[in-house]
């Protein structure tokens, strides 16, 4: 499991686990650090995908099925131990949904809460008609990356860093842009679903996520662009919100 998961703060007595999925091109460090910010009731598992960090020499995944299969194989024993929730931003939101769907269908397991951020539902018209950024030239891609915010300008101006960073980002975008999911004919899950987004981000069809679950649906808009969640103020809002709802979920679970 350690190959796939970063956990900076082990909490054997935690009442619940939060499994976090990176944005496109992202590593596990940002969310793994969250483990030190949550109190002792929540243990954070941050997913580490091939082609980055300690897995830098591994080939990138080519499709969503590969991501889902690896995550479930690595995490299944842990997910059976205690209540868990999933959190994902952008590409990570799609992976969170795909993992939750597969866990329910294959193993009858369901998160106590699904936290989705910065992404339209995969079956929404807005998502389906979105341009395929992974097919842009590097120059066009960098212009787009600069326009959505959240990436330090010094990184975008450093050819050596870009040489390492762009392949992972494009590989993840290729996965999500080619991920197909039919609109649910009925709820797939029964857990609460919360969607977050930056007020200054490009519009996303967040309301379409309502279709995936019969549980409560909540929408929270926070100040900022696509990477609003990197802002310390917003990060505290997210952590406080997740903590409150997971502790409540634990009471319901019991």
UniProtKB/TrEMBL annotation:
Please state what class of enzyme this protein is. hydrolase
Q: Which reaction does it catalyse?
A: (9Z)-octadecenoyl-[ACP] + H2O = (9Z)-octadecenoate + holo-[ACP] + H(+)
Q: Where is the Thioesterase TesA-like domain?
A: 19-246
Molecular-function GO term, any one? fatty acyl-[ACP] hydrolase activity
Its EC number is 3.1.2.14
Coiled coil located at which positions? Answer: none
Keywords noted in UniProt = Fatty acid biosynthesis, Fatty acid metabolism, Hydrolase, Lipid biosynthesis, Lipid metabolism
What Pfam families is this protein classified in? Thioesterase
Under the heading InterPro entries, the entry gives:
AB_hydrolase_fold, TEII, TesA-like, Thioesterase
Look up keyword Hydrolase and say if it applies: yes
SUPFAM superfamilies registered for this protein in UniProt? alpha/beta-Hydrolases (SSF53474)
- What GO terms in the biological process aspect are recorded for it? medium-chain fatty acid biosynthetic process
Give the family this protein belongs to, as stated in its UniProt record: Belongs to the thioesterase family.
State the protein's name. S-acyl fatty acid synthase thioesterase, medium chain
């Amino acid at each position: 499991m350690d190959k796939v998961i970063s956990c900076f703060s082990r909490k054997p007595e935690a009442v619940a686990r939060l499994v976090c999925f990176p944005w496109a091109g992202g590593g596990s460090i940002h969310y793994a650090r969250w483990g030190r910010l949550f109190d002792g009731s929540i243990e954070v598992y941050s997913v580490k995908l091939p082609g980055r960090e300690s897995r830098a020499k591994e080939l990138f995944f080519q499709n969503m099925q590969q991501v889902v299969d690896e995550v479930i194989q690595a995490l299944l024993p842990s997910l059976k131990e205690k209540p868990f929730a999933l959190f994902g931003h952008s590409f990570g939101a799609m992976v969170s949904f795909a993992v939750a769907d597969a866990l329910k269908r294959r193993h009858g397991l369901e998160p106590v809460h699904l936290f989705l951020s910065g992404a339209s539902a995969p079956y929404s018209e807005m998502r389906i008609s979105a341009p395929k950024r992974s097919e842009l030239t590097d120059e066009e891609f960098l212009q787009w990356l600069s326009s959505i915010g959240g990436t330090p300008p010094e990184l975008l101006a450093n050819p050596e860093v870009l040489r390492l960073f762009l392949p992972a980002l494009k590989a993840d975008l290729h996965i999500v842009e080619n991920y197909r999911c039919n609109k649910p004919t009925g709820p797939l899950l029964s857990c609460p679903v919360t969607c977050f987004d930056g007020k200054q981000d490009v519009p996303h069809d967040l309301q379409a996520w309502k279709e995936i679950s019969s549980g409560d649906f909540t929408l929270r808009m926070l100040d900022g662009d696509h990477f609003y969640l990197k802002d310390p103020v917003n990060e505290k809002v997210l952590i406080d919100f997740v903590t409150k709802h997971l502790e409540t979920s634990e009471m319901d679970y019991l």
